[in-house]
Write a structure and sequence with these properties.
The protein has 175 residues and is mainly α. It is built from seven helices and no strands. The protein folds into two domains: 141 residues, Ammonium transporter AmtB like domains (Ammonium transporter fold); 33 residues. Helix 2 packs parallel to helix 4.
Length: 175
């Protein structure tokens, strides 16, 4: 149900964009996954739709505001929708036991928000930023400017053409 809710909302908000429709379905699943074992199916559908909407809107807001390119929407789908899912579950499941075993705290919005900060910031953003800085300093983060201007498919096709020419030459020499 969270998949269908995410896809429906993403289809509407993106005006039928296929990429965002499918990404919205994934965002819906990720948003509802924090409490999927406890949600009613209709709750999962609504929460999935809210997560897809948040992922879509946050993606473009961050892209415009901070000039950060998320070409495949991975940060939007996993990061923003996951963060929203944890916070939403804190409100929807407020007071529900967090474990079947005795002695664990009940679910509450503050605890879920703190968990979301740790998940998104400490375990997600910070290591990703460090790895990106290391790759950028080694010159391995971006493709060369010439290849970017020509297009990756052009460079790949040229490599394939060179390889097939070499195969033909080898076959000609064998005959």
């Amino acid at each position: 149900m969270s998949l269908s809710g995410g896809m429906l909302v993403a289809y509407m908000v993106s005006k039928g964009n296929a990429f965002w429709t499918y990404s919205g379905g994934l965002a819906g699943i990720i948003t509802a996954s924090a409490g999927n074992d406890l949600y009613h199916p209709i709750q999962a559908m609504i929460i999935g739709g809210v997560g897809a909407w948040i992922a879509y809107k946050m993606h473009f807001w961050v892209e415009r505001r901070f000039k950060v390119d998320d070409a495949v929407g991975a940060v939007a789908v996993h990061g923003y929708a996951g963060f929203a899912g944890l916070v939403i579950s804190g409100f929807v499941l407020w007071g529900h036991p967090s474990s079947v075993y005795e002695g664990y705290a009940a679910i509450n919005p503050l605890g879920q928000f703190a968990g979301a900060i740790v998940m998104f910031g400490v375990l997600g953003f910070l290591p990703g930023w460090i790895v990106a800085k290391i790759l950028a300093s080694a010159g391995m983060l971006r493709i060369p400017k010439e290849v970017e201007l020509l297009g990756l498919d052009f460079a790949s096709n040229q490599e394939q053409k060179i390889a097939s020419d070499e195969v033909r030459k080898t076959q000609k020499n064998l005959v």
